Amino acid sequence: MNVSKKTGHRFGAHRVIAPPGAMPQNAWKLDDTPVPFANEILCDVEALNLDSASFAQIRAFCADDEQRIAEHILATVRERGKQHNAVTGSGGMFVGRVREIGDDLRGIDLREGDTIASLVSLTLTPLRLEAIAGVHVTSGHVAVRGTAILFESASWSKLPADIDPGVALAALDVAGAPAQIDKLVRPGMTVVVIGADGKSGMLACARARARLGRSGTLIGVAPRATTESAALLTSERIVDTFLEADARDALSLSDQIAKAAPGLADLVVNCVNVDGTELASILCAKDSGTVYFFSMNTSFTAAALGAEGVGKEVAMLIGNGYTKDHAAIALQTLRDNPAIHAYFNKYYAFARPAETLS
Questions:
Q1: Which of 42, 108, 114, 273 is the most exposed place for a label (fewest CB within 10 A)?
Q2: Would you state the pLDDT for residue 296?
């Protein structure tokens, strides 16, 4: 065992190198030394799942070149001791095996050798990468060899036996979306999900349908209504209507919503991976409605000043990556929706790469 006898700060402040006084998430650089403090967990990392906003930005920057993407991620982690996208400010999560558990944490329900998914952002997770073995550009999965540290306060989930690890990772990465739906959706509501064709959007739609039953109205929105995921949501009668629209065009989208739902939406859920969609989300909501910004591309300034500028009184919620029981809710949503589970299996199940990229 190579475990320090020292106990670190439960939120990981002892791992911050720069700047002074920062917490791990907003720090520029973390100490990624793979020796756990007495209240830390050391994991051997097998895969990263970059969040949709971050991976879309990296793909565009690297022109979808897998080698360049791998080198970009390695450079970020070497420089900062974590995977923290400097443009989007977001990260993702990892899957790995527990190597060592600090003495202070011996009472938790975890053992060396267990395979787990982290449920905290890579932006606050000390990470050291030896190599990247493969990049899957359509899923955001990155096969790696390396180590990561989980703090005492960190959330994690053992991977279920009945769900592929890659599929579980994809669902757990957006677990906050379907879990919050349980708190926000009531029968009879009109709900609009923008970015309905992505991971978080599909799970949010499925959860909203379960909460609505056949009452109320559920409208999905995405740039194209002909994608496989959009067609699935329609054919499975998860959404009542699927609209093809660019959410960066606020007036066009709000006009379409007004035609489909003249009273506008009680709840708008924003799950997009591009910026500039705040005002469209606000305009689609009725006065005194609610907008739930799950997207990591959300600008607080654009949302607050946009609502002010159009004189719209709506409650605006920031998507919280942590919600009580969010992991269990996300995985159960997959189990309850075989067609969505099959779609996730097709696109997010782990494929073992044949060779090391970097």
A1: 108
A2: 83
**E strand or H helix at 144:** strand 141-150
Instruction: DSSP for 30-67, please give it.
Output: E---S---TT-EEEEEEEEEE-HHHHHHHHHHTTT-HH
Tokens matching residue 186: 């009531």
- Give the structural domain span for 240: 176-325+330-341
CB 247 within 8 A of CB 268: no
User: Closest Cα to residue 154, out of 295, 284, 25, 283?
Assistant: 25
- 199 and 336 housed in the same domain: yes
Residues of the chain with pLDDT under 70: 1, 3, 351-358
> How far is Cα 47 from Cα 129, in angstroms, rounded to an integer?
11
* pLDDT score, position 354: 40
Lookup result for tokens 């209504």:
225
Q: Which residues fall within 8 angstroms of residue 256, CB to CB, at 6 or more apart?
A: 243, 245
Residue 319 DSSP symbol:
P
CATH code where residue 305 lies: 3.40.50.720
- Give burial (CB, 10 Å; 0-12/13-18/19+) of 2: exposed
The pLDDT score that the predictor gives to residue 355 is 47
Q: How far apart are CA 210 and CA 217, in angstroms?
A: 12
What is the C-alpha separation between 179 and 163, in angstroms, rounded?
A: 19
Which structure tokens are listed for 188?
Answer: 């009879």
Tally of CA atoms within 13 A in the half-sphere of 100 that contains its CB = 18
Task: Quote the tokens at residue 276.
Answer: 């500039």
**How many residues in the chain?**
358
How many structural domains comprise the chain?
Answer: 2
Cβ-in-10-Å burial (0-12, 13-18, 19+) of 54 comes to: buried
CA 352 distance to own-chain centroid: 22
Same domain (yes/no): 215, 131? no
Q: Is 200 exposed, middle or buried (0-12, 13-18, 19+ CB in 10 A)?
A: buried
Per-residue pLDDT at 356: 53
Which residues, 6+ apart, have CB-to-CB distance to 168 below 8 Å? 117, 157, 159, 160, 331
Q: Which two tokens stand for residue 36?
A: 């756990």
Amino acid at 206: A
